Amino acid sequence: MIVIGGSLGGMKALRVILKELPATFPLPIACALHRRREPDDLLSHILQQDSAIPVSEALDKEPICGSHVYIAPPDYHLQVDPLNFSLSIDDPVQYARPSIDVLFESAADAFGPAVIAIVLTGANHDGQRGAARIQSRGGLIIVQDPETSESPVMPQATLDATGTRHVYSPEKIGAFLLKLVVPDTSKNR
Amino acid sequence: MVEDVKLPLRQAKPDPEAVELRDLLESVFDRYGVDFRDYAYSSVKRRVMRRVLDEKTGTISALKEKVLADPLAMDRLQVELTIHVTAMFRDPGFFRAFREKVVPALKTYPFLRLWVAGCSTGEEVYSLAILLREEGLHDRCRIYATDVSDRVLSKAKAGIYPLSAMQEYTRNYQQAGGQHAFAEYYTADSDFAIFRPFLRDNVLFAAHNLAGDASFNEFNAIFCRNVMIYFNRSLQDRVHGLFHESLLMYGYLGLGRSETMRFSSHENYYEPIAVKERLYRKIK
Ligand SMILES: C[S@@+](CC[C@H](N)C(=O)[O-])C[C@H]1O[C@@H](n2cnc3c(N)ncnc32)[C@H](O)[C@@H]1O
User: Which CATH class is domain A2-183?
Assistant: First the structure.
């Protein structure tokens, strides 16, 4: 599965990535974005505008399905269990709820090497520990190119911790995912 | 240019520590009778790893040895594994919907029993008591407030909360349709808000374990919010069975904002009253 974390400017970058992906994109995508508490599913509505893949806020014990984008609800941690999502109102981790580390670490436990983690723009270090854990279990780490990031701190922190070679702009991240996951379609693009 | 990479994308591998974790939870259950075996994996794992770090045991297996040998370490594990975060009028929209869509129906009953399951330190109970009082229902209600943890229940009985939280709670109260000045409900000293004792006149605080104990009464409404998210699907199903059995026909069930009947075994026994607010009514 794919897990994505973003903070300051993350929503914009995420929109660009999702725009690149077709409705048939087979993997589940789970996102934790630091956000202010807004009513309703505002964030998923905004993301849906550019996404051919259905987007919704994850619900507790919702099964993890391919071709779907799940967003952590405001004020909850989103965690990955082997078959479904679990939500939690544990204390914020490094001031963040949802916390990117919590999402990433649980994904590493549940899926091991079958995880792709993407760290987008942001002004803190969330995601760094979780990405390191995913890497240590054989998963793949992608960071948004700090140069294209509204705030480079977060992707840089993960880059420093993991030394990943996959450093791309949001557009490239989309293209890369496509090529990685559905090699045939990307040849024709 | 993007590079070529090969990925075992579809070969999820189970957590190598899962076996150790299972073993810890089984041993804890055998030795202390405390059952976390059916709690949500990710939450338990996270919390246990925190104990491994704080107790400096290095591995889950070593933590198990320590916990089995040392009841104090067991206490610390148990405290870590139960999450008590709560607030007054958390999710104001829920309380507003309860006020608007459920209270009118409740007013037709001469006597009401309500159950707040997993009430933690009581904030939700006092919120409900305030709402019922403003609706003129308090005198014919009995609220059963239960939790598995005695530690939080004694705090709930005291009804004393940090003064610093009152600003947020006041805002929540107003958004929930509160009709008075929130400060009427407590007296403040320099650090704490002490809630007025009349609010718990009709409240019964008691220990009850959703993972093992039986139904103990019949209710017009049950609140169980942000409790079952810590359970796995099979324990959730058990608890849904318990609630279904404990609700009167056309009784109401209120869940947390990210919880839904949709993935539960009991979906068909309920109709949604306010979908977004997770308010349901038993219809069979
Ligand atoms: C996160 S709090 C939720 C408090 C409140 N209902 C709310 O929504 O703000 C969860 C509570 O569930 C309780 N709990 C956990 N396992 C339980 C069980 N097996 N039986 C009863 N209560 C349990 C915990 O002790 C904790 O106080």
Answer: alpha beta
